[in-house]
Specification:
Layout: E1 2-4, E2 12-14, H1 20-24, E3 36-40, H2 45-56, E4 60-65, E5 75-78, H3 87-98, E6 103-106, H4 121-148, E7 152-157, H5 170-190, E8 195-202, H6 211-215, H7 217-225, H8 239-246, E9 257-260
Parallel strand pairs: 3-4, 3-6, 4-5, 6-7, 7-8, 8-9
Antiparallel strand pairs: 1-2
The chain binds nicotinamide-adenine-dinucleotide.
Residues 40-41, 43-47, 65-66, 80-82, 107-110, 130, 157, 159, 202, 204-205, 207-210 line the site of nicotinamide-adenine-dinucleotide.
Length: 270
Amino acid sequence: MTKKISGANNCTIQEVSLTPNASESGGNYFSVYNRVVVITGGNRGNGFAIANGLSNAGAKVVRIDLAFDNKLNTEDIEFDLTNQTKIKSLVEDITEKYGRIDALVNNAGVSIASANPYADESTYEKTLSVNLHAAFAMCSAVCPIMASHNSGSIVNLTSLGAELAFPNNPSYQISKAGLRQLTKALARDWGEFGIRANNICPGYINTAMTAKSFTDNELHQKRKNNTLMKRWGESADLVGPAIFLISDASSYITGTDIYVDGGWTANGGL
Ligand SMILES: NC(=O)c1ccc[n+]([C@@H]2O[C@H](COP(=O)([O-])OP(=O)(O)OC[C@H]3O[C@@H](n4cnc5c(N)ncnc54)[C@H](O)[C@@H]3O)[C@@H](O)[C@H]2O)c1
């Protein structure tokens, strides 16, 4: 909508119109109230924190995980994401119940230590299956549904390993590099249907996945010292960025990476 400024000749300003959701939520651009959010790997760690934060902010959260021992105000579905042939019907069931899917957070992931990661096919296959193929199948199932209501936000949890080399974990790094690029492909192909896709790229966060280096004094200090903030991340550090990317506050942001790494990637060293 264009607005004339009184007293100024031929001068107009472009008024930014609130999207329907923002106006419904009283102009709170960060609102995720009533949004239907599906999150994978929501039982613990980063996924648990994000699911909890979204649920507390009023979103209708559906968690998918192997099993649940952490209760939240969410719908919890026990499902092994390596069963990719069943993902389409899983997503159809969720859509039938809620009528729509406003956001998908591909968070489930594995990082498997291996004595010989270049010869260990099972590690490679499992890592790619959970971290990349499941996310691809989830997006393939969810995008047509989001497109049918012309809106949606996909948030993929990548890693510094999507771009930087870390020792002895090639499968993880390949999977996260693929996921990072999947996000950009989604943004390219589904943007005109109202779907945004972005990466949250965490640094070292204190979860079960990183317990070994968190509890190793030398590695703990090294990781801490390489951040500009001189601390490890907590899963709670990811909640704000996830809410931002799912809410209308990020309505023109797509195909990009948000680093939540305490300054790791900005650190020039010395
Ligand atoms: N912790 C970090 O420092 C860090 C850094 C960068 C990226 N990440 C990413 O954040 C995401 C969450 O990691 P986290 O640190 O919370 O790890 P985590 O191991 O604590 O949690 C991973 C969750 O994924 C679930 N999951 C694993 N395989 C699954 C499967 N086949 N089907 C369904 N669910 C499955 C697990 O049950 C678990 O709840 C991952 O994608 C990880 O790669 C973590």
